[in-house]
Design a protein that fits this description.
The structure holds two protein chains of two kinds.
Chain A lengths: L2 H23 L18 H25 L2 H32 L8 H21 L4 H29 L13 H4 L3 H46 L1
Helix pairs in contact in A: 1-7, 2-3, 2-5, 2-7, 3-4, 3-7, 4-5
Chain B lengths: L1 H17 L1 H22 L5 H25 L3 H10 L2 H31 L7 H26 L5 H28 L8 H26 L2
Helix pairs in contact in B: 1-5, 2-3, 2-5, 3-5, 3-6, 3-7, 5-6, 5-8, 6-7, 6-8, 7-8
The chains are: A mainly alpha, B mainly alpha.
Chain lengths: 231, 219
């Protein structure tokens, strides 16, 4: 393995090991209601960061596809959306578990939760759209257009609507949120590495998936070339 | 450009007048939906549900109406349009046309709704009308583009709804919020910030449709 090329993978492993060890064993401030669930900050929040990074990569490659028309850009856009949705599902599960112990319910009516659910719906619709078009070029073009449109609307939703009504979620409406933990430099020492670690892991997953897809495409191309020779 | 748009718009309206059954079927869809709701609810729902129900009915009618905007263009007409008009003019004409259609449907829907459900709780009517007007523009901009995408697939009818629902939600929630304020008779100044959000969403979805449509258009 080439260290100069793959240093960021080692960084991801080290950061995530640090996050897991310090996240479960490190000291955290004791707060009522939250208690030990405060440790979810190292897992739940960075997963959303990872998801947004991957979805942003997906949109950027969608735009690149529309201007270049290269299949490779479309592969990256699709796989980034896949990896982003996987991160989003992890974010939903960790958030849901946390809510069960602090709010007493798995799911509740809240703008932040709605934003997360809508993001998932948008990207499931994106996959359904990809599934219902046969032609590769057309599939890539339609889904690129949809993902650009959808990403902008999603950002509007996530940025604007929570400011319109109050939310139960930490960081809103007087609930203890990240601003209060800012006082606690010990938590920041784990939180920032955790964010970087989870983002790097997401990019790594993307990297592996893209390489697998490229190989598959290569095999398919070779095979169809071979078939032409035989027939 | 403006001339091109006005010619295309006239073509849409002319087509609609020649094929009266499409417009009639949309209106009938709306009336029957309201009637079904009336029979299911039996009594007049309280203002919160009244409001939500009205906008949900309008959403379904709008998806139905906009879903037709590209499907009915036949292959040969499509090629003809492709060679004579610019994609920007086509999308703007379609958006404007759908906006007019949605305004008409919202008006008829509102009348049928208050007649069948038997009460009109709206206290701040000017705000309600401005809200409906801005809502039609937003619905039309988002749904026309989604219709352009879904008409290119094998599964256009279901896909239209699946693609549109999550994208229309920010718009729908803002519309419901403003319209609730109008029902409660709150002063218009309270709703200014929501109206601003509505205008913002409309501008963003309009610009996106304008920029992205040329990529959907070429085949």
């Amino acid at each position: 393995m080439n260290i100069q090329k793959n240093w960021w993978k080692f960084l991801a492993i080290i950061l995530l090991l640090y996050t897991v060890i310090m996240g479960f064993l490190g000291e955290v401030p004791a707060r009522e209601i939250l208690n030990e669930t405060i440790r979810n900050l190292y897992f739940h929040v960075p997963m959303w960061f990872g998801m947004m990074t991957l979805l942003f990569i997906s949109v950027v490659y969608g735009i690149r596809y529309l201007s270049s028309g290269k299949t490779d850009d479309d592969i990256i856009a699709r796989e980034a959306a896949h990896a982003g949705v996987a991160m989003g599902i992890l974010g939903l599960i960790t958030g849901s578990l946390w809510a069960r112990y602090t709010w007493g319910t798995w799911w509740t009516q809240d703008t932040k939760l709605n934003g997360a659910a809508i993001t998932m719906l948008i990207y499931f619709a994106y996959f359904v759209l990809r599934g219902s078009v046969e032609d590769e070029q057309k599939k890539a073009r339609l889904s690129a257009v949809y993902s650009i449109f959808a990403f902008v609307m999603m950002v509007v939703f996530i940025l604007i609507l929570p400011r319109m009504e109050d939310s139960l979620h930490p960081g809103n409406g007087g609930n203890p949120g990240f601003n209060k933990y800012d006082l606690d430099s010990k938590m920041r020492m784990v939180f920032y590495p955790a964010v970087l670690g989870w983002i790097l892991l997401g990019v790594w997953i993307l990297n592996v998936r893209v390489r697998i897809t490229r190989i598959e495409e290569q095999i398919l191309n070779d095979y169809s070339g071979m078939k032409d020779q035989i027939l | 450009m403006i001339k091109e748009i006005s010619i295309l718009l006239r073509k849409e309206i002319l087509l609609e007048r020649r094929q009266k059954h499409t417009l009639n079927s949309l209106i009938l869809y709306l009336v029957s939906t309201v009637f079904v709701c009336k029979l299911c609810f039996r009594s007049v729902p309280e203002p919160g549900s009244w409001n939500a129900l009205f906008w949900i009915i309008m959403l379904f009618s709008a998806i139905n109406a906009a879903g037709k905007s590209f499907v009915q263009d036949s292959r040969s007409r499509f090629i003809y349009l492709y060679s004579v008009a610019s994609p920007q003019a086509i999308i703007l004409a379609k958006v404007i046309y759908n906006m007019l259609l949605m305004l008409l449907l919202t008006g008829i829907g509102f009348l049928v709704y208050i007649i069948l459900l038997g009460s009109n709780p709206v206290q701040n009517m000017p705000l309600f009308i401005v809200n409906a007007l801005l809502g039609s523009i937003g619905f039309s901009a988002v749904l026309t583009t989604m219709s352009a995408i879904s008409s290119r697939t094998n599964n256009s009818f279901t896909l239209m709804a699946v693609l549109s629902f999550p994208l229309i939600l920010p718009l729908l929630m803002t519309l419901i919020k403003i319209s609730k304020n109008a029902i409660d008779g709150l002063d218009t100044t309270i709703s200014y910030k929501y109206l601003l959000v509505l205008v913002g969403i409309n501008v963003i979805s309009g610009v996106l449709s304008y920029l992205l449509f040329p990529y959907l258009w070429k085949d």
